[in-house]
Amino acid sequence: MGDSLDKKWYVLQTYSGHENKVKTNIEKMVQQQKLEDQIFSVKIPSMEVAEMKNGKKKVTKKKLMPGYVLVEMNMTDDLRFKIQNLPSVSTFVGGKGKGPEPLSLDEIKNLFSDVGNVESEEVSRPRFLFKVGETLKIIDGPFANFTGLVDEIFPDKGRLRVRVEIFGRSTPVELDYLQVKSEQ
């Protein structure tokens, strides 16, 4: 019934932090309902990131798109309905009215080429290594071009709290790793 020519990648919006649960639930549904010829793969786009923990280099997976899961499938109204009714699933992204839009080939290439491997220079360069007390420059968001001192680091979230001088007062601001860079 399912024609492999219809096999495309779709973006599924989930509750943030529930990506793994949604992936597991879709995979269970595929097994239980024998949908292997309609749903082929479920991926959580992530990237391996090197960081320092207690003086040791540790590689962790950081989600590239928190709150989203990619599903390779033959889209049908029936399958869309089944997946959207799973717990922690919000909706498929795109395509108002006529159903979700699949990702284009370019979008897929970009997403999957971003998923670096541990050996690559890009990932092991100390891009995400911040220390409490370090001065950082904010490069994105409402506080761009401000500098601040690192107050606390949340490696599991890929975020940190930085104290920024605003109108002469030190104000704590929580930022994503990607919104700051080292002053050195």
UniProtKB/TrEMBL annotation:
Similarity remark: Belongs to the NusG family.
Gene: nusG
Entry-linked Gene3D superfamilies: 2.30.30.30, NusG, N-terminal domain
Domain spans labelled KOW: 129-156
A biological process from GO: DNA-templated transcription elongation
Signal peptide: none
Pfam families recorded: KOW, NusG
UniProt name for this protein: Transcription termination/antitermination protein NusG
